[in-house]
Amino acid sequence: MALLVLIYLFVFVCATLSQETYMTFVKHTLRWAWPTLLGPARSVRSRLDCAIHCLQSFPSSCHGYLYNESTKICKPSSGLSPYSSPEPSDGDFYFNDSQSSYPDFRHHTLLNETQSVSAYAGYFTKPLTYTEAQATCQSMHSHLFVAKSVIKYFLFLNITTKEYSDWIGLDDLANEGRFVWADDGQEIDVYMKSYLFVSPQPDGQRNENCVYKTSIHDTVKALTFNDANCSLTFSYVCEVDLSLI
């Protein structure tokens, strides 16, 4: 009798833990970033089995899974990335959302003789418009990179490459001529504006309301800032507020 009670308790505890595990994954609508897959697809009996399979097979990297209710196909995921591509047959995505659920992000630090600066950021070379890039960052709980100091600007240069033009989180979309940072809407100060731009930039020509870092192939001096039409497509850096880490 005692053995039967122990077996019952064991089964009950396992079922409870499985249900709690199942509930940590919430159905997530995908638009700007998509699941990065872990291993091959697998046929399972239920969504609960898919969650358990993901966690048992990839205990340190499982942050979600795709599950097709019709086909019973399960695809474990390490999180979301703009580099991934959705498949119509994938089914629904269930996500345990946390900062570690975005595998393209990492810590970046720059030191000089007198100061240091850090950022938790991801660099994405798949070109997007300014609005698309900002929306993609926001879907990953981040914003376009901001460079409010000289050392932060050099960190941005370290993260990116001189071969590409890259959006920075700075625009005058709300008020023409008043360039503000994407994280808090603070206007760029006079010193940084003169440091980052080469005169006569920003010139505001042809609806140029969004700012990017020039490449070595640009007609404007390389590795400086320039305003451009927001519908152009460039690489970009997403940055997470360090207070959220």
Give keywords.
six-stranded antiparallel β-sheet, 245 residues, alpha+beta, signal, 14 strands, disordered N terminus
Could you outline the blueprint of secondary structure elements for this entry?
Blueprint: H1 2-23, E1 26-28, E2 34-37, E3 42-43, H2 47-57, E4 64-68, E5 73-81, E6 92-95, E7 106-111, E8 116-128, H3 130-139, E9 143-144, H4 150-159, E10 166-171, E11 180-181, H5 190-196, E12 208-213, E13 225-229, E14 234-240
Parallel strand pairs: 10-14
Antiparallel strand pairs: 1-6, 2-5, 3-5, 4-5, 4-6, 7-8, 8-14, 9-14, 10-11, 10-12, 12-13
Helix pairs in contact: 1-2
Task: Describe this structure as you would to a colleague.
The structure is a single chain. By secondary structure, this protein is of the alpha+beta class. The chain has helices at 2-23, 47-57, 130-139, 150-159, 190-196; strands at residues 26-28, 34-37, 42-43, 64-68, 73-81, 92-95, 106-111, 116-128, 143-144, 166-171, 180-181, 208-213, 225-229, 234-240. Strands 7, 8, 9, 10, 11, 12, 13 and 14 form an eight-stranded mixed β-sheet that branches. Strands 1, 2, 3, 4, 5 and 6 form a six-stranded antiparallel β-sheet that branches. α1 (2-23) packs across α2 (47-57). The longest helix has 22 residues, at 2-23. It is elongated, with a radius of gyration of 23 Å. The N and C termini lie far apart (51 Å). The model is unreliable at 3-18 (pLDDT under 50). Residues 1-18 form the signal peptide. InterPro entries: C-type_lectin-like, C-type_lectin-like/link_sf, Ca-Dep_Lectins_ImmuneDev, CTDL_fold.
